[in-house]
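User: What would this chain look like folded?
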Amino acid sequence: MPAVARASRPRGGDATLVGCPISRVFCEKWEFRNRGRRTRLSTDRYSVLKAWIAAILWLIVISIESTAYLSAHNTSRFLFPLLHYLFGISLERFEPLHFFLRKGGHVFGYGLLSILLFRAWRETLPALGNPKWTFRWANIAVLGTALVASLDEWHQSFIPSRTGTPRDVLLDTCAGIAAQILVLLWMKWF
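Assistant: Here's the prediction, encoded as structure tokens.
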């Protein structure tokens, strides 16, 4: 059997794993050689793994931000003294600013998650013609962002110092959609 046909088959001969992205990364036979030594990751598998690690690390950051330690009460403890010292902001002016800073954090965090998920799916699911952007990758990234936002708000509904609201899920999903529009524009122009 030629080497090319052997490299595309999943380990164990299970035909159901052929289209599975997990089999592409982990279950294929490792045929790549690096300076005569056998390595576990080819260049392609390395980029897939690198993209997913970045997305998973950002998911961990979102999970940490979802705890009671970063509730509005706790973030105001260090933000108010800092902003009061730097800009002389009073408590009355701080409260609406604190609200917008927290919602801006939602937009940034979930926009970045959407971009990282897009990158991970682009590396995992190849497309014909090697395009820079496809609706498929963007759609999966936005759906993943909406799922994570829903789970995050559901988790926050069980924490006494946090509130889980559907408005935040909508805000986070809109941030994911806006991030995908920015990715599309970036890919078209650069």
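The radius of gyration is 22 Å. If you want, I can go into more detail on any region.
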